[in-house]
C-alpha cells in the first residue's frame, strides 16, 4: 500500500485532504521516533513519554468523539461516534494499563505527570472544535488521528524488526479491526462533506490540516521528551 492510495480508493473530501497533506504524512512516517520504533531501537524513556501523553490525549479524544456523537445528523452517526468514544476510553484503560505495567509506569506517576505543551494544545484544539464547530468540521478535525495512525501503523508493520519491544503497539494500529473503524470514519466524514457548503468544506480542510500538523508535533514532542520550559 502506498501513501498515495491509503486504505481504499477514497471519495472526494478525504482524497483531497489526504493529497493536500501528503507531505505531513511523509514527514511523520519517516520521523526519528517512528524509524526507531520500527527498528526496535526506540529508547524506553521516549516511549514512556509518548505513552503517558497518549493516555492523557485519549481521554480528550474520547470527549471530543462524544460531542461529535451528540452533533451527529442521523442515528447511525450518533451510534458510530458514541461507540468510538467508548472505545477510546477502553483503549486508554487497557492498552495503556498493559504498557504502563510493562514499562514500569505507576498510576501515581501517570497522575503526577502533566500534559506536555503539544498534548495540551492538541487536546484543547479537539475539545474546542468539538464544541464550537459544526458536525462536518468536527469530523475533519478528528479524522487525522484515526487515519494517520492507521497508515503509520501499517507502514511500520511492513518494515518492523521482529521481535520488537513495541510489538503490541504495532499490532494494535496495523490491525484490520482498527482499519475497519478508520474506513467508517472516512466514509462518515465524506458524507458530511457532500452535504456541506463550500465555506464549511474549507473549514473542514483547515481543521484536517491543523490536526495533521499536531500529529507530527505529538511524535516529535515524544522524541524530544519535551516538557514545559518554565
UniProtKB/TrEMBL annotation:
Known EC number: 3.5.99.2
Domain Thiaminase-2/PQQC: 32-224
GO cellular component, one term: cytosol
Keyword Phosphoprotein among UniProt keywords: no
Highest taxon, organism lineage: Bacteria
Pfam family, any one: TENA_THI-4
Entry-linked InterPro entries: Haem_Oase-like_multi-hlx, Thiaminase-2/PQQC, Thiaminase_II, Thiamine_Salvage_TenA
Keywords of the record: Hydrolase, Thiamine biosynthesis
SUPFAM superfamilies linked: Heme oxygenase-like (SSF48613)
Any one GO molecular-function label of the UniProt entry: thiaminase activity
Gene Ontology terms: biological process: thiamine biosynthetic process
EC class (word): hydrolase
Pathway: Cofactor biosynthesis; thiamine diphosphate biosynthesis
Reaction equation(s) it catalyzes: thiamine + H2O = 5-(2-hydroxyethyl)-4-methylthiazole + 4-amino-5-hydroxymethyl-2-methylpyrimidine + H(+); 4-amino-5-aminomethyl-2-methylpyrimidine + H2O = 4-amino-5-hydroxymethyl-2-methylpyrimidine + NH4(+)
Keyword Metal-binding included in the entry's annotation: no
Similarity comment: Belongs to the TenA family.
Function summary: Catalyzes an amino-pyrimidine hydrolysis reaction at the C5' of the pyrimidine moiety of thiamine compounds, a reaction that is part of a thiamine salvage pathway.
NCBIfam families named among the record's database cross-references: salvage_TenA (TIGR04306)
Protein name per its UniProtKB record: Aminopyrimidine aminohydrolase
Species per Swiss-Prot/TrEMBL record: Ancylobacter defluvii
Amino acid at each position: 500500500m502506498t501513501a498515495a492510495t491509503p486504505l481504499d480508493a477514497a471519495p472526494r473530501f478525504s482524497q483531497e485532504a489526504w493529497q493536500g497533506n501528503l507531505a505531513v504524512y511523509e514527514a511523520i512516517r519517516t520521523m526519528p521516533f517512528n524509524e526507531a520504533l520500527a527498528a526496535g531501537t526506540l529508547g524506553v524513556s521516549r516511549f514512556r513519554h509518548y505513552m503517558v501523553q497518549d493516555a492523557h490525549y485519549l481521554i480528550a479524544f474520547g470527549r471530543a468523539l462524544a460531542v461529535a456523537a451528540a452533533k451527529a445528523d442521523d442515528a447511525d452517526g450518533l451510534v458510530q461516534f458514541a461507540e468510538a468514544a467508548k472505545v477510546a476510553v477502553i483503549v486508554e484503560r487497557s492498552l495503556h494499563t498493559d504498557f504502563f505495567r510493562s514499562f514500569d509506569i505507576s498510576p501515581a506517576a501517570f497522575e503526577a505527570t502533566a500534559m506536555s505543551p503539544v498534548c495540551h494544545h492538541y487536546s484543547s484544539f479537539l475539545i474546542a472544535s468539538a464544541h464550537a464547530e459544526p458536525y462536518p468540521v468536527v469530523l475533519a478535525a478528528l479524522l487525522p488521528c484515526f487515519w494517520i495512525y492507521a497508515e503509520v501503523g501499517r507502514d511500520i508493520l511492513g518494515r518492523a524488526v521482529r521481535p520488537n519491544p513495541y510489538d503490541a503497539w504495532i499490532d494494535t494500529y496495523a490491525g484490520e479491526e482498527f482499519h475497519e473503524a478508520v474506513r467508517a470514519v472516512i466514509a462518515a466524514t465524506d458524507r458530511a462533506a457532500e452535504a456541506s457548503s463550500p465555506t464549511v468544506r474549507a473549514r473542514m480542510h483547515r481543521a484536517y490540516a491543523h490536526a495533521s500538523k499536531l500529529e507530527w508535533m505529538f511524535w516529535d514532542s515524544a522524541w524530544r521528551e519535551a516538557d514545559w520550559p518554565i
